[in-house]
Amino acid sequence: MATLNSLKQALRQKAEATNPSSKQSLSVTQYSAGFDILMQGPGWTTYKDFIIPQLSELLATLCTSRSHISVLEIGPGPKSVLGYLPTRLRRKIGKYTAFEPNGLFAAKLEEWLYSASLDTESPLPSVKNAPDIFQNPFVLQDVREHDKKYDIILFCHSMYGMNSKQKYIEKALGMLVEESQGGIVVVFHRDGALNLGSLVCHRTASFPTGVVRVLDNNEALDCFAPFVAGFVPQDAITRDNWRKVCRALGRNDGAHPGRILFSAPDIMMAFNKHATSLPDLLTQVPSANGGKVVKNWEARIHSPACIVRPTAISHVQKCVRWALKQEVGLTILGGGHSGHCLRPNVVAVDMGAFDQIDIIATRDDDIDSGPNSDSGPLVFVEAGCKTGDIIRKTTTMGVTVPLGARPSVGAGLWLQGGIGHLARSHGLACDAVVGAVVVSVVTGDILCLGRVPSSHWPVGGVRPSNEAELFWAICGAGTNFGIVISVTFKACRAPTFSTRNWIVPLSDNLEARQRLRDFDDLVARKLPRNYSADAYLYWDVGKLHLGVTMFESITPTTASTPSPIDVGAILGLEDDSKPLEESSATVDGVGLFEAEMYVSRMHGGHGGGKTSSFKRCLFLKRIGEVNVVDSLVAAIATRPSPLCYLHLLQGGGAIGDIGPDATAFGCRDWDFACVITSVWPRHQDGTEASRSAVQWVYNVVGDLLSLRNCTGVYGADLGPDPRDVVLAAKAFGQNGTEIARFKGISDPHRVLAYACPLPKTPTQQKLIILVTGESCAGKDYCADAWVSIFPRCARKPLTARVSSISDATKREYAAASGADLGRLRFDRAYKEHHRPTLTVFFQEQVRQRPRLPEEHFLEVVHDATDVEVLLITGMRDEAPVAAFSHLVPDCRLVEVRVQASERERRTRRGLSGIENGADNSKDSDKDRPNIAALNYCPSLIFDNDTAGNRAAERFAERHLFPLVHEDLQRLANMVRSVPDFPRPNIEFRHVLGIAQQPDGLALCTSLLETHFIGDWGKVDAIACCEVGGLVYAPALASSVDVPLVLIREAGKLPPPTVSVTKTSSYISSVESKNAKEKKMEMEQGVVRRGASVVVVDDVLSTGETLCAVLQLLNEAGVIAENVSIMVIAEFPAHRGRQLLRQRGYGRVPIQSLLVFDGV
Fold first, then answer.
1. Could you say which of 111, 442, 449, 559 is the most buried, measured as most Cβ atoms within 10 Å of its Cβ?
2. Which residues form the signal peptide (predicted)?
């Protein structure tokens, strides 16, 4: 699948070779036809998933400091992308100007801007004066608009044909508002470098997965190819050749036959008024003079604004303070292995001059020990050193540090983990860090953490007040919180290593299962800590191979000990492709670098080849289990290049001795680190071959992440690719949220915005929507419709995702039965055919593992930690909110049941009513879904009988958007948390305190009134019991003009009364160990028999109080079907909903405004 840029070059070359004089400029109509193709299908996905969210984020920041903004847009097309922003941002645009040279587009744009009606507002409703639409290009010499100033100038895919793009950006910069007002120029550009010289980016982001889809017919290709090439050929031969080029370079879209796909990666670059300020920095800090080797192929394709090479800490401080002043970011260049060490038009700081290594025999007066004092030799290492430099220097002194396995890797590895062959005996590299010197990216100050040798204490260095927290973060996620100048390692005695190698050809999957199971169970698990065993899966000479290298570390004070197991008896003879002395060898730490199988043996040795690679690493347990082995073998079977391989590095031992919260590196429970590595010839960098190789890695990662054996992701490999955002959520175990929080404190101005991605800081409570319903009711369709509109939520764009809970079962069923997993997911007929056996398969799984539904639910939720709204399909459990809400007590869980008529469901299934004996009379009762047959009440019900998305969107706006409304967060902020009350280890939520807050009672009343899913006009009474209900129900009853029914303890109401016995509520039981059952009562006849009643209470925890209220109402002649419950706050951990179901009240609707974790 070629990129659009590659396609353009190929089309132009073909035209030049065929008939170079046969060219004509595109007409307005032809340009419009080609433009429409790019905006359809997956082309629009780039806008929806990248351009609109990025633009929304930039404008949200800009709009916080002003009531309205002015916009100049260059080449908006027939509709401005600004019209797709959230309503609150569109209403901030008070002035709009555009240059649109295409006359047809200009006319449509003007028509669109005035498209307000009685039902819809204008796309830019706050624009007071008529927008200025100039029907001519934006040119460098034009001075008509130069005296006008704008808050934002937007080039959205409109810089094509501008030969000196840097000059156009510079002209736009001159048209921004004054510096103090913070205007920005924003550029979105498809495919290919912009070559903007020394301009410095304020922010940049990429979208490498964008694609464009075009119909595979002559008419469509004849529209598409000229648009891409930029001209229309006048001869039939060139047109025919162009069709052939498109078909040859495009990829057939398997999901949509008859269509061709092209890659269309996108980039966003934002510039502020300081974009031309690089000379100021270069007068203070030396620039690099070339010669720096950047290993990472992703980084090599980028052109930074400049690479500076500081030679003193003061230079680094100046870099930071310059970046803070200019409001730009920096990248850090160490070993050059990370994908984020160079970014387009961002200043890179090359730390290569910081290359000092010092071995220190500790004495108390030599070390400023700080809080991490320990005895033993230390190794002081500056951030420009490579792993090989450190090992060579320390080995000569008889000591070493447990670093990684590649000599050219820099400080990013030590700070983010560092997995080597000493990890089982001495832990990770980041575990050996006992001190560090860091330049703060908040102030530019020099911060000293932990044990810093006195001889290396920098002038001006201070210990920060948050030293312990910063040191914790540095050890495991250390590239994100400041610029590390040096670290201090605790050293260990330098060992020698005995290495042995086995290479085992595998005949089929069954042998692969057996060999890997034997390796895991009989070899790896029985090795002592001074041994480690690596495994490799790769394809060579027509066969799948398992390679194994076993390392034994031997120190001068310990003799080599025989392996406790006979590995040869399990794996066979050692590798006979090499002489015996090469197959078994003894090496020191330096020689160990060349002992890796992929360096010296696999595919003839990868060590000296001119290749590029891309890798991601996951942590796995029990690699010998069938599901793991099958996934690994399937990965190799789908490799896009002959050189791809999987490397399994053994873990355990000392890695797990440290608790997951002791350092930022929280992934401690794993047997093997699985490195998925794609390799291709270097001359193919940036081609379809490299893109396919990268996508293969992500495909394999996605497959392995879905296994219960996967316990995390190695953060050191993660880079700027947005596909890494999902992986970042799993990279730090339980520490992800804390790391994200601390990032906001330690880098609030995003100076290190391009470092290893971190989990997003939770901004609000996650909403989980369970989309349920009968087969063919349209659950998946509705979920897709709803997930697409949350990012367009009027008040705040929300990240949303759809996940199917049945995917895990389908995956395991496919593995067991041989069914096609892809068709099980996406082919309705195929899925229906397998449904009976799939159901039996799942039921048998549940019989063997009764908690399997809960496991699947938690896996889906855990996999979506990076989104704010999660929609889950495929759930068939009865009353799922009652069944699962206690598993996610910090999330709001609701069920939307999608229903459709029997006739509609048969139509979607591809069956006619006549053929299947259905009643074809219009609107027959038999044709309607029967919600009454359910044994519980879903949170919401959506009737999905109407074609199109509009009904689903209206439903979301009315019922789903209110669940994430900011007023709910305002209400939650009014609930004070009181620890250790009324007893130790109880965190009390003072829900009644809302009424004591200014406007608290009014806000709560308003939310209760508007969130009620019923009709207040049909409610006969509001019932409440003391004391919580008595606080909130009267105001609500007054607001909706409904009588209030009081429920009180026995003896507090005049006779005659109706009474029931009530078990103590949760908070009453913890207040007093002697709490007893009490009677509660209501006046007889205060509510008529059969009345409709809404019960209002302050909290739902165990459900005992509400059960008693429902029982009391039943005694008074009000059946449960006529009762609804509304509470201010719910505590799902107590499973109150489940108790209500068990007591026979499962069909009573329950709504809660707030949801709180804890007890």
1. 449
2. none
